[in-house]
Amino acid sequence: MGTGERLNSPAFRRLLAGQTVSSFGDWMGTLALMYLVLELSGSTTAVGGVLVLRLLPSALGAPLAARVVTRWRRRSVMMTSDLVRAGMAFALPVVPSLWWVYAWAFAIEVVGLMFLPARDAAVPVIVAGRRGTPDRGTLQLANGITMATSYGMIPVGAGAFGALLFLSDVLGWTGHGRFVAVFWLDAVTYLVSFVAVRGLPDLGPRRGERRPAGGAVRPGAGLLAALRMPVMAAVLPAVAVVSLGLGSLFSVGIPFVRDVLRAGPVGFGALVALFGVGALLGLLAARRYGRRDLIGQVRVATAAQGLVVIAMGALASPAWAYPGAVLFGAAATGALVGAITHLQENLDGAARTLGLTAFHAVLRCGLATAALVAGAADDLLARTRPPPFGISPAGLVLIVSGAVVCCGTLLIRRPAGRDRPVAPTGRTV
Fold this sequence. Notes:
mainly alpha, 15 helices
């Protein structure tokens, strides 16, 4: 069975369809959450608290998620997570109170932290076909496509949210009631994902699954067990520094475009679109280069991301910012897809699911932390007159963030005896 045939299998198509619909609802619900908080509080600081909701589940909920995903079968984890999140999304807008909204938003994030590693651990099982183990190129492409179903829905979800707000204005709806329909539609998308996952075959882990040395864990093991696995040493530092670059650019992106590039929302939208183009190019490059050396791919892509961020902050010109967005998207995608594929190849059974739980916890925690720190640094530097070194606050934050990312590549090391370079045919060399 060839690559195209395995990726066109009914099971993989079902997974992608469910994830595409669910991601559409997620992004639509994220925007609705920010506007609802602003509606209830009238405070932009409270809106910033939405970022904290992205941080706390990773810091507090990851240990719980790690124990759940190693005790249950992957399909059961995914189905239960979808049902629970559907109920939570339905309940979130019912009471127009800030604490109520925050509590349910936090709970949804915790449950999401259980769904994602179960999904990523299932991808190799789905695309393996009768061979039992997918080749590296197929696995990287499958991971990239799965990731694209999430981030590719950002503009679609944003557009749908805007259309629903416009319709509510036409109908004369006011107050927090305008957002009820959005969250309830988000709940329906979780149910669509549930139906899609329910139709999948058994996703394991099965008795007798391969558990490589240093990767075996007992059912119910905690997050510390994942951090002790040798294969995680090469991945988690890379994920942490990549999330630093992503979070920093996310946090200061709007002021950078507005104050430095002198562009408006259209300019920012163009940068986001070019980031998506770069992500596609990064996926294609990863599939070609990563066949030979996954850890080398992760290291090179991470360093490239840092250099691009430094250049964007230092040059501060549209002539570089727009092609820089393409390179940034390519580098970030190459690093993250390489890291996920490394874990999937070197872990199996409960160890694979536990390792991917740690992956998503570090990624989301790093994104939120970097966004908060970069935003606070930008606000602090904005009060300094004249600007330090004559560089804009947003530009200086990007330069420092990129430098930290580059330095962080020194922490990425190859585990002994693992992820050896392979030939394009998939044979170890």
